[in-house]
Amino acid sequence: MAQIDTGDTAWMIVATALVMLMTPGLAFFYGGLVRRKNVLSVMMQCFMLLGVMSIQWVLFGYTLAFGPDQGGFIGDFSWTALTGVGAEPNADYAGTIPHTLFMLFQMMFAVLTPALIVGAFAERMKFSAFLLFSVLWATIVYDPMAHWVWGVGGWLRELGALDFAGGTVVHINAGMAALAAALVIGKRKGYPDISPPHNLPFAILGAALLWFGWFGFNAGSALGANGLSVSAFLTTQLGAASAAVAWAVVEWVKGKRPTALGTISGAVAGLVAITPASGFVTPLGASGIGALAGLVCYLAVVIVKGKLGYDDSLDAFGVHGVGGMLGALLTGFWATTVINPAGADGVFHGNGKLLLWQFVALVVCAAYSFVLSFGLLKLIDKVVGLRVTEEKEGIGLDLTQHSESAYTLVG
Amino acid sequence: MKYIIAVIQPDRLDEVMAALEEEEVNLITVSDVMGRGRQKGVAEVYRSHVERGGLLRKVKIEVAVNDSFLQPTVDAIARGARTGHIGDGKIFVFDLEECVRIRTGETGCVAIG
User: Fold this and answer.
1) Rounded to two decimals, what is the model's pTM?
2) Domain spans of chain A?
């Protein structure tokens, strides 16, 4: 019988709470970036996901993602409503902490991932359509993909692709769904002539909470309190730090001023890119991944998005999709068994094969997410309509979807 | 010279500005204000919610024009702001005694445009 380790359990309780904080952190990050007539709507969407996704996860999400394998594709229903998931550790996933705690840790990822997509359709989606999309998306896109990558018997887990903390399942997945959402729902009224972010200090607060919570996300993915979790903690810090500096430097070199918005965007891009690599790379590797993430995501958000003309309002694809794919590929270069014997060596450590598996995992997951998200959004658009009327969009989602406004003028 | 003050629905600002631009009226001052009309802000709450004392959120725009621009400007504001619902707002027109461009010291009609 597996033995519960109190140190591991204590750390994983804290790590789970840290990851929970990322969703409200994201709410502030996104909330600060939208116009003031929509701040409550994006915060509400993030917060509501803490509600509905927690319930979805307990009822059937967890068993679909982690339950006994069905053909490498999805879990079965034997853990529905947490049947058989209790204090007894599950040695397949985490042998030293209660199974319930592993389930809770994963729940916070399942809450956060659909919340990331909010950035793409912010300021124009109906609340009802958003709810419908999020629950269905979690069930047919997130849960199966989580099973492929993390579930026992999942086909990508068997293949040998490395993803320490969820770069594929969380960031590439959400990023591709975000791209699909931006394309299906269309540009905001008036785009690209949209007012600047209404409250940058909110966005900075949000980015800070994300960075803080990310220690739970990455270091917690070691599923124990040990050398590997601390190594992931360090690479997380360096990934974020290098990317924040890189983005600001690029802005400066391009002849503009280094901006606060750019620096926090860089930090988030670095956190995204280091996520799959965090338990497999050296501090030097983490710095390299971070710096490249700052540079590449800057190009994606500032240059490429403008040229292609889609309106990914808050750059959910540009940061999470592009950063996630970059991180997956760079893991294939910088991963080393010196850091994690359970991992593999990458190109820089004499093994080119890993890069191939990383590429396969990336392409399959990106394609699956994009195609299903696109189809799902088209379907919801047909059935209930995705978008608010032009008049309601002008008034703002706070008033039209929630009958509230964030700020009063007097009193 | 005339001074025009209009109180409109906040979400019509973009349309009003676009309409003013069509008339080549580009100078405008905009502020967030609170107000209420005949309904005291409460009889029909439309596209806003009641803040303190039955007041609704509005946007006030102010434009100074030479006489020949008066009618096109008033028409443009009305065109941009009108939805046909209660609460579309009002336009007030005043005689304007003097106008000084601070940078050059110019006064009167030349200072407005």
Assistant:
1) 0.92
2) 6-87+94-402
CATH no. for A6-87+94-402 = 1.10.3430.10
Spatial distance between the Cα atoms of A167 and A163, rounded to a whole number of angstroms:
6
- pLDDT tens digits along B38-48: 766 554 555 66
Q: CA angle at residue B84 from B82 to B87, to 5 degrees? A: 80
* Whether B48 and A403 lie within 8 Å, measured CB to CB: no
Q: Which residues of chain A make contact with B33, given a CB cutoff of 8 A?
A: 409
Helices A200-219 and A227-253: crossing angle in degrees, nearest 10, is 150
How far is B48 from chain A, CA to nearest CA, in Å?
7
For B47, the closest of A395, A404, A409 (CB atoms) is A395
At residue B93, the 3 state secondary structure works out as strand
ipTM value: 0.78
Residue A293 near residue A285, CB atoms below 8 Å: no
Report the alpha-carbon distance of residue A84 to residue A93 in Å, rounded: 15
- Could you tell me what percent of chain A has a pLDDT over 90? 91
Domain around B82:
2-112
**CB-CB contact of A266 with A294 (8 Å):** yes
